[in-house]
Amino acid sequence: MMIILIDSQDLKTVPLAFYETLRTQGGYTEVQYGLVAAMGVLYAVPVMAIFLATRRMMVRGLVASSRGL
Amino acid sequence: MTTRAESRAARSTAAPRGASWVETVAAHLVFGVVVLFFLVPFLWLFTSAFDADAVAYIRVPAKPTLDNFVRIFTEHDFGRALVNSVFVAGSTMVLDVVAVSLAGYSLSRLDLRFKSWIMYAVLLLQTMPLSATMVPIYGLARALGLRNSYVGLILIHAAIELPFLIWLMKNFFDTSPGILRKPRGSMDDRSSARSLRSSFRSRATASASSLGSRSWPRGPKS
Fold first, then answer.
1. Is the whole-model pTM more than 0.80?
2. Which of A7, A13, A38 shows the shortest C-beta gap to B84?
């Protein structure tokens, strides 16, 4: 979805940055796994931070919505 | 009261005692395989991130280095991308939580004429493959001048998540207890708005935070 809607460098989001790491040389596409992995590690950081901060609320919400507390 | 608690305690201790050691070993084996299955991709992520010339299989980096991290920030401007992603995901989450709370509440509490039709229509939207919507979305975004703007991106992200979240939130309101439910017929606009507000405060925040966690853009596909 990002790919088809955003093509300006200033507005790019992480999924677009993933695509930038693909390097095409003479019809042969190479994946730079190191860069992809480094991005993946950092991409997970905000999610982890939010999860750890709201862990208790999240579990309570899931339990409450499944058993109707 | 005590008898109920005792019987519950008896039941909870009875289950492990009944399991033989074969079952215990088998259960641990199965869980171990499942855990491994989910752990291996993350293991690859971590080993490769510190590997100067990473490959598509797991190996301990010969010389651990932070070179990859330096390169994504200098060559690919990853910091800006990350900030942009956080902004898009956060806006999507706020929009979704507000919209879904309203939709879920009204679908759960109001007597609408074609309620089941609406619910099935929402469910039908969820079955639509994302790739089938890409071309029309692109055309729409171009016609409305929403290309290269976050408004379009956020709206589309929010819309993609909506059907599932509406069902989740409707079920949540269906099962929340009666303090929010007025007797039939007394549901005028004022009381409905007031109970909606109180439901926001008292109950929906917990549920909303678990909804919010779904809005993070998942992978390059989205």
1. no
2. A13
